[in-house]
Amino acid sequence: MSSFPTSELVKFSDLHPKPSNVTFSYGTAGFRTKASLLDSVLFRVGVLAALRSKRLDGKTIGVMVTASHNPEADNGVKLVDPRGEMLENSWETLATNLSNAETTGDFIQVVKNIINHQKIDISKTANVIIARDTRPSGPGLVAALEDGLRAMGAVARNEGVKTTPILHYLAGKKAPPLVVDCANGVGFFAAKAMGEYVNSVLPLIPHNIAINALGALNNACGADYVKTSQRLPPSLVSVLHPGQRACSFDGDADRLIYFYLDDRSQFHMLDGDKIAALVANFIAELAKGAGLDGKFEIGVVQTAYANGSSTKYLSERLPVQCVKTGVKNLHHAAEGYSIGVYFEANGHGTVLFSPSALSILETHQPSTPAQSTYLSNLIALSDLINQTVGDALSDMLLVEVILAHKGYSGLEWDSIYSDLPNRLVKVVVKDRNIFETEDAERRLTSPPGLQQRLDDIIRKYDGGRAFVRPSGTEDVVRVYAEATLRPQADGKSQTFDLEIMFIPNIFPELAFRIAGLVYDESGGDSSKRPKEFL
Ligand code: NG1
Ligand code: ZN
Predict the structure, then answer these.
(1) What is the mean pLDDT of each run of 10 residues along the chain (534 residues)?
(2) Edge-to-edge, what's the strand order for the sheet holding 256-261?
(3) Which of 4, 97, 247, 291 is the most exposed place for a label (fewest CB within 10 A)?
(4) Which of 358-373 are b and which e, b meaning 16 or more Cβ less than 10 Å from the residue's Cβ?
(5) SS3 345
(6) Which residues bind Mg(2+) (predicted)?
(7) Which atom of ligand 1 sits closest to the CA of residue 348?
């Protein structure tokens, strides 16, 4: 909003005339009186909340519609300052003056006076969060409040029915800053542009932003580096402090991997599987809360690269499908559900809402105020998510929204389940086309007999799972292996066991043994057999 919105204010103010012969007063707990008298007050409080937010550089102002312990026929409204505190004293007088302006003309004049005296920059974006209690007059009064916010062009977030302390908490809530590793790529432009909108509630700190430096793209940074090496990008070592969340995009910003350091500065990765678990759980929770249990099917689609712990965790709760590597396969399978959550372990994924699910969301009649809040949150999620394709920026917002709603830090999110130690290895072979697979790429059908020999090795590892497939994007064969901590029936030294125990997320042995076998089978020159595979 760049100039004073006279015509909007006049139009909306005329819809909410002040009753004559009433004098309002912003008391210790805001305005409070018979609900039937409050329509104009709520409209004007909407305008005042927007002015207060603009005065504070767009910080979020809370508005609570309640008359607390008073009789049900009363209602009221109070403003909450950005840190969750009561409105500053001097503004209580402004609120009283504004509410008592007799005509629309008087009201506009008081608004102008406030802008002048408080030196308010009208061009700033106002952010306001609103909630109400269960009083029957609440919805009508919130509608009047929203008219005031609309007239001022404020960005309003309606939290529905909430307790007063929750509204104070929400108004005071600001997500801790998020470090964003842009992989020295195009994601930086997007993160920068998005920061302008979200920094007031979610401060973004972009790193690895050298988009013009030759050789920098995806070099020792970005989602693929973090996922494959299971390490913090070296460039972030002196940036990230314990407990802080960070995420990495890949070079074209369609993959997203999160990570954090614990209080011993140990690195923990939250990959596409963890994102899928967080998102699928949250959506299921919202659907249940909205009274939509059984109305539609929420499913998860993964590939063979999904960590076994994630598959176990998710399939105990929701239908889970495993498909061949490649986004097109995941996307297609996700379309088979009412709400399909799909993520590759490497952080590429999204959520699809089928047309019928969307129409159920649109037409569903919640039977309680709480159901109505769950429903509107679910509808908001369907808007937030980029359903055309996995999108690091949109997925990042999705994750942040869920963490904020649940009050989770990286640690709490991480503890949904524990990853099995795993390793992905590339094997350069003479001809990768001799490798053919079945069962969503989890078993080899060619070269003949190789799968049998792999099984003989895998069987020796507790919780062992491994598979081999030719890459579709590089001239290599990929080997993935995971297992629980201790190798079984294996002659390896105690030192190796200890190493595994101290670095629990690195489990190279099974992967390397299989890689060695794959290398031998593909007719590789034994003198070039990589040392680690021996
Ligand atoms: P290939 O090279 O077929 O493994 C890789 C990724 C896929 C997918 C595509 C497209 C792994 C193991 N594989 O495919 O998941 O993202 O690239 O980018 O991450
Ligand atoms: Zn990409």
Answers:
(1) 86 97 92 98 98 91 96 96 82 96 97 96 91 97 97 91 89 86 98 91 94 97 95 96 95 98 94 98 96 95 98 98 96 98 98 97 92 92 96 98 88 95 88 95 96 94 94 93 64 32 51 88 69 50
(2) 204-207, 178-181, 245-249, 256-261, 267-270
(3) 4
(4) eebbeebebeeebbbb
(5) coil
(6) 68, 250, 252, 254
(7) 16
Residue 459 labeled ligand binder: no
Q: How far apart are CA 151 and CA 145, in angstroms?
A: 10
Ordered domains of the chain (ranges, CATH): 6-171 (3.40.120.10), 178-269 (3.40.120.10), 272-414 (3.40.120.10), 422-533 (3.30.310.50)
The alpha carbon torsion through 183, 187, 191, 192 (nearest 10 deg) reads: 100
Dist CA 104 CA 336 (whole Å): 55
Is residue 410 within 8 A of residue 268, CB to CB? The reply is yes
How far is the C-alpha of 231 from the C-alpha of 247, rounded, in Å?
12
The verdict on the CB of residue 262 being under 6 Å from ligand 1 is no
Confirm or deny that 469 is annotated as ligand binding.
yes
Name which of 462, 489, 477 is nearest 533 in CA terms: 477
**CA gap 520, 525 in Å, rounded:** 8
DSSP string across 309-331:
HHHHHHHTTS-EEEE-SSHHHHH
Q: Which of 501, 488, 323, 496 is nearest to 421 (CA)?
A: 501
Residue written as token pair 């994102």: 275
- Is 68 an annotated catalytic residue? yes
Whether residue 472 has its Cβ less than 6 Å from ligand 1: yes
**pTM listed for this prediction:** 0.71
